[in-house]
Amino acid sequence: MIVYPNAKINIGLNVLEKRADGYHELSSVFYPVKDLCDILEILPSTEFSFSSSGVEIPGDGNICTKVFEMLKQDFKVSNVNIHLHKQIPIGAGLGGGSADGAFMLKAMNTLFDLKLSAAQLEKYALQLGADCPFFIDNTPKYVQGIGEEMTAIDLDLSAYEIQFIFPELHISTAEAYGGITPRTPETNLLDLINQPIENWKEKVKNDFEILAFKKYPQLEKMKAQLYADGTIYASMSGSGSVLYGVFNSF
Question: Among the three residues 151, 178, 193, which one is the final residue of a domain in this structure?
Answer without folding.
Answer: 151
